Amino acid sequence: MEATKVRAVLLKNEQHPSDGKQILISPHISKEELLSLASQELGISAKKIFSDTGLLLNNLSTIADGVTFYVSQGENFQVKSSGAPQKTSKKYVIAVLGAAAVGKSAITLRYVNNKFIRDYDPTIEDYYTKNAIIDGEPTVLSILDTAGMEDYFPLIDDWIDNKDGFILVFSVELPDSLQRLRYFQDKILHRYSQQGNKGPVTIMAANKVDLPNRNVSSEEGRKAAESMGLKYMEVSAATASGVDDLFAEIIRVLRSRRATNKPASKEPWYKKMCSLL
């Protein structure tokens, strides 16, 4: 049986990489095959491959879904953050879910490219990579934009697997799109039921709030989110209002959880006694 393909992002090895190329590859692809594919996709003569931490990859083991590769024409790793010495970027994988025509792709492309595309030709799924600085810390977001047509809902289990966070999007024009979010939330809760507060972060986003005539009020949206145990935020892909804050909020919660779950330091007993004197 053929192995399930995984998604990867190819970026040119530059100080400020441009938007990546999303590809589907075998998790057991060889380095030579990946170099050949990278040459075709990026239009360069690919000779070296680096991880997102700058590690030169001489041998590829099994590739994880959503991985990012930096492709070099022979030069050393170039990706740098400005200002202070470079920190290792933390990577998070986020899926954007919701019914059709609610603006999932518009929100994703607004965040990744800072562009608004009114008429977008929907595909089954697309991965995008965003290199961001959130609260001063370099962060890499791998964002899965999914189809909203019910014909594709059998893929939902693949979409929600191995994710750090979810954005459940509805349109304030379409009351039914708000109700459909319960289906996605139930799936997420079932998949991560054993992980408790170590599971993914999920936020409900009301899109198209820039429109003058909305059919779902802010109060209705908040009540629906509260009933599902979710944080509620309002955004407009058209004006960019709230979009950056939406993704940043997920990262902030994830960072807070990681800090909270760190094991307590084992301080010698005599130091604890001294602090009480």
TrEMBL record:
<dbReference type="Pfam" id="PF00071">
    <property type="entry name" value="Ras"/>
</dbReference>
<dbReference type="InterPro" id="IPR036572">
    <property type="entry name" value="Doublecortin_dom_sf"/>
</dbReference>
<dbReference type="InterPro" id="IPR005225">
    <property type="entry name" value="Small_GTP-bd"/>
</dbReference>
<dbReference type="InterPro" id="IPR001806">
    <property type="entry name" value="Small_GTPase"/>
</dbReference>
<protein>
    <recommendedName>
        <fullName>KHA domain-containing protein</fullName>
    </recommendedName>
</protein>
<dbReference type="GO" id="GO:0005525">
    <property type="term" value="F:GTP binding"/>
</dbReference>
<dbReference type="InterPro" id="IPR021789">
    <property type="entry name" value="KHA_dom"/>
</dbReference>
<dbReference type="GO" id="GO:0035556">
    <property type="term" value="P:intracellular signal transduction"/>
</dbReference>
<dbReference type="InterPro" id="IPR027417">
    <property type="entry name" value="P-loop_NTPase"/>
</dbReference>
<dbReference type="GO" id="GO:0003924">
    <property type="term" value="F:GTPase activity"/>
</dbReference>
<dbReference type="InterPro" id="IPR020849">
    <property type="entry name" value="Small_GTPase_Ras-type"/>
</dbReference>
<dbReference type="GO" id="GO:0016020">
    <property type="term" value="C:membrane"/>
</dbReference>
<keyword id="KW-0547">Nucleotide-binding</keyword>
<keyword id="KW-0342">GTP-binding</keyword>
<feature type="domain" description="KHA">
    <location>
        <begin position="7"/>
        <end position="89"/>
    </location>
</feature>
